[in-house]
Design goal:
Blueprint lengths: L2 E4 L5 E4 L15 E4 L2 E4 L16 H11 L5 H17 L4 H17 L3 H18 L5 H13 L3 H14 L5 H12 L3 H14 L3 H13 L3 H13 L4 H17 L3 H14 L4 H13 L3 H14 L3 H13 L3 H20 L5 H11 L2 H14 L3 H13 L3 H12 L10 H13 L3 H14 L7 H12 L10
Helix pairs in contact: 1-2, 1-3, 2-3, 3-4, 3-5, 4-5, 5-6, 5-7, 6-7, 7-8, 8-9, 9-10, 10-11, 11-12, 11-13, 12-13, 13-14, 13-15, 14-15, 15-16, 16-17, 17-18, 17-19, 18-19, 19-20, 19-21, 20-21, 21-22, 21-23, 22-23
Length: about 475
């Protein structure tokens, strides 16, 4: 499993299948923080130690699933085959059923099979609970993960709380609780869950969870540093690739296009089946003006994992290039994927609402997103509902939700170019020109290429608004 890589001087050296631990703040083969920005450097000069051979793919996947970290798709397939065989021979093995259910969740999260795999995951996890109804924190934890994957954050919180009551020291439960609370807009409770997790456990998976909380709080440098540490300590290529992909997302959100692209490429070298990194590559290439390469990357991502979000991004890229027919094809795929995912219990209201607001029926987007807000009032839903209301002509009400998404006083601590753009356009519609100018400029300062369509609209709106009037101050 050892492989030979070459550094910038083209001298060969051996790197094992896993990355060696690196000092805090450095990233082996990935992130190094320099001047507050995340960049990709070569692998430090530490020689790898040759030792025991790497464990089998199924064993690696089993360890990853048990630790709540990403697993490689081939290993997941092997693990699932092993666990399916086990429960056929030993149908009363509650632990095997729980592992099987968690593996189905991870496989569904990484592929296009939610409509099949998530119901199978639920059956396996509920069978585990039926076999061992008391003290079965593994199955409860798995059901929380499944609910989070389906974007049913209220159910996820309930399952995670139940798992915590059964096993308060089970650290993986707190990651599920963090995701659920974030989806519900309860950022205070998400931070409390993170604090409890940090007391129980350290390590790359915990640092990656911390990065998500820091990002939602607007602590972008802290988030990047946490992901750097997570990738440095990763115990498998699939895990390291996952943390690199998330670091690429953060770099893109900061407007660091080249850095984002480098992270996504590094992730794909480690795990070619990481379709999120392939879509991220398309995002970064489009921002760099390399449209043909961006289209190819998006098509490859959709071929491997046709998520509605990828179809929306590709459709908008086609639209920005004046290719309306291809855009319509992607939007049709988006609707079909939302419908199919719904068969697996996945809540697609957010992405479908954003799509309808910009490319379909804004009134239906408002209805859909109002219901979503009542169910789980997260910051992303506040932003989407505000934007749908604006597109439907209800700017006064829209501004209330845009403030929720962007004002620190209302919980909107995350720094998002898209959120700032939405608020600026709503304020422009209300003729609040000073505020509109400020938020549109903020959007382009945070990420000048946040969207092939909307970044262009933000620049055009700022041009219409012109410079700040040179008027004397009032008495």
């Amino acid at each position: 499993m050892d492989s030979v890589v070459r550094n910038e001087e083209n001298t060969a050296r051996v790197v094992p299948w896993y990355r060696r631990r690196a000092p805090v703040g450095a990233l082996v083969g990935g992130l190094v923080l320099a001047g507050g920005a995340a960049v990709l450097w070569g692998v430090p000069g530490e020689r790898a130690q040759r030792g025991a051979p790497a464990p089998a793919a199924g064993a690696q996947a089993g360890a990853a699933v048990g630790a709540g970290v990403p697993a490689a798709l081939p290993g997941l397939a092997e693990l699932i085959a092993e666990r399916e065989s086990r429960v056929r021979e030993h149908p009363r093995d509650a632990g095997a059923w729980a592992v099987l259910g968690a593996a189905y969740v991870e496989q569904g999260r990484r592929t296009a099979g939610a409509e099949v795999l998530y119901p199978k995951a639920e059956r396996a996890l509920r069978t585990s609970l039926k076999v061992r109804p008391r003290g079965n924190s593994e199955a409860l934890d798995g059901l929380a993960a499944l609910a989070n994957a389906r974007r049913d954050f209220r159910a996820a919180r309930g399952w995670a709380e139940a798992a915590r009551r059964v096993a308060p020291a089970r650290w993986t439960t707190y990651g599920q609780l963090i995701d659920a609370c974030t989806g519900l807009g309860d950022h205070k409770e998400a931070r409390t869950a993170l604090d409890r997790l940090l007391k129980l456990r350290s390590g790359p998976a915990v640092r990656a969870r911390a990065a998500g909380v820091y990002w939602e709080q607007g602590l972008r440098e802290d988030a990047q540093a946490a992901l750097a540490d997570a990738a440095a300590g990763a115990s498998s290529p699939a895990e390291e690739a996952a943390w690199l992909e998330r670091a690429g997302q953060l770099a893109f959100e900061r407007g660091e296009r080249e850095s984002a692209l480098a992270h996504f490429r590094a992730a794909l070298r480690l795990d070619p089946d990481l379709w999120a990194a392939r879509a991220g590559q398309g995002r970064a290439l489009a921002a760099l003006g390399r449209s043909d390469a961006a289209l190819t990357a998006y098509r490859e991502a959709l071929a491997g994992q046709p998520l509605p979000q990828y179809a929306l991004e590709l459709g908008e890229l086609y639209e920005s290039l004046g290719r309306a027919r291809q855009a319509r094809e992607e939007y049709a795929l988006l609707r079909e994927r939302v419908r199919r995912d719904a068969a697996g219990g996945v809540d697609g209201a957010l992405v479908l609402g954003l799509f309808e607001a910009d490319h379909g029926d804004p009134a239906s987007a408002v209805r859909r997103l109002r219901a979503e807000w009542e169910r789980q009032p997260g910051v992303a839903v506040a932003d989407a509902l505000g934007w749908a209301l604006h597109r439907a002509g209800a700017d006064e009400e829209a501004l209330e939700y845009a403030r929720t998404a962007t004002d620190r006083a209302h919980g909107g601590a995350v720094l998002s170019a898209s959120y700032s753009y939405h608020r600026g356009m709503i304020e422009l519609g209300l003729e609040r020109t000073a505020n509109a100018r400020r938020h549109l400029a903020e959007a382009l300062r945070l990420n000048p290429s946040f969207s092939p369509l909307h970044a262009r609209a933000a620049r055009a709106a700022l041009t219409r608004l012109g410079e700040v009037p040179d008027a004397p101050l009032p008495e």
